[in-house]
Amino acid sequence: MTEEVKIKSSIDKSTVDGVRSLEAEKYKYGFDSDIEQEFAPKGLNEDIVRFISAKKDEPQWLLDWRLEAYNRWLHLKEPVWANVNYPKIDFQDAYYYAAPKSDDDKPKSLDEVDPEILAIYDKLGISLKEQEVLAGVKGAPKVAVDAVLDSVSVVTTFKKELAEKGIIFCSFSEAVKEHPELVRKYMGSVVPLTDNYYATLNNAVFSDGSFVYIPEGVRCPMELSTYFRMNAQGTGQFERTLIIADKGSYVSYLEGCTAPMRDENQLHAAIVEIIVHDDAEVKYSTVQNWWPGDSEGKGGVYNFVTKRADCRGKNSKVSWTQVETGSAVTWKYPSCILKGDNSQGEFYSIAITNGFQQADTGTKMVHLGKNTKSRIISKGISAGKSNSTYRGLVTAHKKAKNARNFTQCDSLLIGDKCGAHTVPYIESDSSSSQFEHEATTSKLSEEQLFYCRQRGLSEEDAVAMLVNGFCREVLQELPMEFAVEAQKLVAISLEGSVG
Amino acid sequence: MMPTHNINLFPTRRDENWKYSDLRSSLNQISKGIESINEPFFTLPDGLTTEEVGCECASLKNISSVLAENYCHKAWKIDVPESFESDQPLVISNLNCGHSQIIININKGGRLSLVEYHESQSNSFINTNIIINIMDKGELDRIIFHDDTHETVRISSAIINSESDTRITQNAISFGGALSRIETIITANGENLNATINGAYLLSESRHCDMTSNIDLLKPNCYIRQLVKGVVKDKSNGVFQGKFHVHRPAQFTDAEMRHDALMLSDTSKIRSKPELEIYADDVACAHGNTIGQLDEDVLFYLRQRSIPLSEAEAMLTEAFVSDVFYSLKDNHLKENILTKIRGRL
User: Which of A161-165, A274-278, B6-10, B53-57 has the highest mean pLDDT?
Assistant: First the structure.
């Protein structure tokens, strides 16, 4: 029996019941797709690592990499310092490889992809129809997509068109074969092999992900996107993304992810490494909508991710924008290492938790070079019985002359059963640094709500508008396509919380 | 000199709460005090007395209590009667070597002004654990003077439990030591707590000061203001860890925390962690943290008027820090603090 959630404004009981009944159904991506897949044997041991490597036909150096990571992982202890609680993970109770059955693993052209797989992405609203764009069909979005299903990339669109500009956009597995020198040079240079427990695990069993290389002076003509879809039951997803922006280049990259509704928890432990050279810029946007677990807190994805950008070059810039609405447990800190002089790091985040979701997320900005700048805008909205923590680190090395940081982290609590927390760490060894941090935790203003309702808006619309206003600074950083999707997501997430 | 046993009681930087103050390593240079008892000296206002009692901190978990429990088997207790009032403060001094435990009970409606001198002239270890229980409508005004040698290691901890309709003001001024930890743990068990918790640290040479506070709000309608300002120069190290924990029933909390630090040298360090843990939705909580330098334009303005650079810096630094004690009602004590600050600049 669900207990009454006390909310400050007066609301009809029938509204509360009606909205509550939407909770489990609101997740429209929770469908299951019955496609033939092949699996590695269940469990995790050295043989599984070798199996994955063999399946991908990897060179010896990469197998050695995986094995070293696996052996080191065996000696590491799972960290427990985050403000999240979850049952101990049985790492033997999962499949570490699952792929649609096919004759070979070579990425296919769109025409050769199993129509059933295409149908999944259609249902998710992810357009893979490059023909429409090339033919100038009105309304067709110009976004190149790398579609990853469980452990493999099933197709990457617009590869040829991008290659004409010297841009490499392909699956990670393909990059290992076609561009090994680039992969070897950069892989692990931002997130070292044993950086943390889940990164080390990823290094052992990583499945697939995207590889992007933008050559010198090139501005990528379209947005690049990877869409991660978990499908098979009982699997973990360990994707690996590597983005390299050479001197003077620019790319805007989008990442989307969803998973079916399942009773058990699935682990998603990814690594994203970004390297930015002189005068280059990378914009990385994520709309994370993994299955958050049902209204009783059962099931849901564990999203334990290591994302880090190395602003190596002078005047380099990385901007992380994320809208996190899914996952049972989110544990991630997209970070920037500001090595190059005048480099800039930005982090814009909205994290919405509902039901029994838990999030411990934030960012790290490490100021090393001279005249580096960072900006952090983080908004957390907690509702239901969820808990959301912002955890951030801003640090300046003593040689980081004139380091500048501005941080704003705000939290909104909807209802009286949730929690919102902020744990910022600010460490300065540079006497010329200027760091500013502010935060508030507040309830939606009664007066603001009354003003909106007086002008004919329903309570839900008023809250959505106020929250959108609250989140405006973050949403306007998202690329246009995502901004629209994110606005819808925010409205959906709120529906279940305003009684 | 390390303790002969129970070394594990002393935290290291691997303990999250002591991450910026590695107590165990700092003991290497200490020659005395780790395993001895400190006898504090009390200057009592008329009407108050002290009583030696057994140590009562078994249930408390902060390091200071654990150490006091382990090394010091007695405590000094002072009971402030109901509706007690006095012009004279209760002064505690001679906190200069070893462990001591002090318990102060402020009974209903009682008002106490408490002044503490945490000062040592040697490379001693001092641990002072003060437990203050404030009953309904009780009031506490607390001033902490902290000034050690650059070789002294000190923990000064206060655990304050308050009931309803109480008022607490705290003003702390610290000039640091080899390692100093000024810790304030407040638990508001009742409604309507009005608390102003201010502090300032001015550090030079290779001194360290860690001002850590944890305020637990369990009931509604509490009003909290915290302002801590710090100045670090030479190779000194300033630390601020603040936490507001607003429990679910603590609706209508109005709490603000702020830490501002001035860095005056290339080899100084600031570490800050202003934390909020909120479970109540109808509250207004804010925290702010800034790190910066003296304003170049203002410095130029003063120098242009023939004020030498060092004097100009001293003036601005004094203005920056003194701001913390602006609302201190006791003018004599305020002037005392400002004089000490000026003496260091």
Answer: A274-278
The Cα of A288 is separated from the nearest Cα of chain B by a number of Å equal to 25
Same domain, B90 and B143: yes
A430: chain B residues, CB-CB within 8 Å: 263, 266
| Nearest-CB residue to B273 (from A81, A425, A431) | A425
Residue where a domain terminates, one of B293, B311, B332: B293
CA–CA separation, A469 and A449 (whole Å): 12
What's the sign of the alpha-carbon dihedral A184, A189, A193, A199? Answer: negative
Nearest residue in B to A391, CA atom = B275
* Same domain for B223 and B133: yes
A-chain CB neighbours of B294 within 8 Å are none
B249 and B331 assigned to the same domain? no
Say yes or no: B287 and B300 in one domain. no
- Give the pLDDT of residue A8: 46
- Mutation target for A interface from B281, B282, B289: give the one with most A CBs within 10 A: B281
Give A26 to chain B, closest Cα distance, Å. Answer: 25
How confident is the model at residue A94, as a pLDDT? Answer: 81
What's residue A428's pLDDT? 96
- Is pLDDT at A106 greater than 60 in this prediction? no
Same domain, B75 and B154: yes
Query: Greater confidence, A182 or A413?
Result: A182
- Supply the mean pLDDT for chain B: 92
Q: How many Å lie between the alpha carbon of B145 and the closest alpha carbon of chain A?
A: 26
pTM for this prediction: 0.88
Coil, strand or helix at A429: coil
Residue B1 lies in a domain: no
Which residue reads 């100038």 in tokens? A136
CA A366 to chain B, closest CA, distance in angstroms equals: 14
Query: What share of chain B has pLDDT > 90, as a percent?
Result: 77
**B89 domain-assigned:** yes
Q: CB A435 to CB B248 under 8 A?
A: no
Query: Is pLDDT of B145 > 80?
Result: yes
| Contacting residues for A184 by C-beta, under 8 A, at least 6 apart | A61
The C-alpha atoms of residue B135 and residue B110 are separated, in whole angstroms, by: 8
Number of domains in chain B: 2
Is the model's pLDDT at A161 over the cut of 80?
Answer: yes
- Would you call B284 an interface residue with chain A, using a CB distance cutoff of 8 Å? yes
Q: Is the pLDDT of residue A127 over 80?
A: no
B334: enclosing H helix or E strand: helix B331-344
Record: contact B273-A437, CB cut-off 8 A: no
The answer to whether A423 contacts B273, with C-beta atoms less than 8 Å apart, is: yes
What are the boundaries of each domain within chain A?
A: 13-495
Shared-domain flag, residues B233 and B278: yes
User: Would you call A416 and B278 a contact, using CB atoms and an 8 Å cutoff?
Assistant: no
DSSP secondary structure code for residue A394 in this structure: E
- Position A81 scores a pLDDT of 87
Asked if A310 contacts A340 with a C-beta cutoff of 8 angstroms, the reply is no
Give percent of chain A above pLDDT 90. 40
Domain carrying residue B184: 7-293
Distance CA B194, CA B250 (A): 14
Tell me whether residues B286 and A435 touch, CB distance under 8 A.
Answer: no
Residues B21 and B166 grouped into a single domain: yes
Which positions in chain B touch A424 (Cβ < 8 Å)?
272-275, 289
Using alpha carbons, list the distances in angstroms from residue A206 to A199, A210, B54: 9, 12, 60
Would an 8 Å CB–CB cutoff place B52 in contact with chain A?
no
Chain segment A228-266, per-residue pLDDT in tens? 777 666 677 898 999 999 999 999 998 887 666 666 778
CB contact under 8 Å between B272 and A427, yes or no, is: yes
Together in a domain, B160 and B68:
yes
Instruction: Say if the Cβ atoms of A423 and B289 lie within 8 Å.
Output: no
B30-66 residue pLDDT tens: 888 888 999 999 999 999 999 999 876 656 678 998 8
- What ipTM goes with this model? 0.92
Q: Which residues contact B343 (CB under 8 A, 6 or more apart)?
A: none
Q: Is B275 contained in some domain?
A: yes
Query: Within a 10 A sphere around the Cβ of A28, how many other Cβ atoms?
Result: 12
Q: How many other CB atoms are found less than 10 A from the CB of residue A46?
A: 13
Output A299 or A343, whichever has higher pLDDT.
Answer: A343
Domain-embedded: residue B2? no
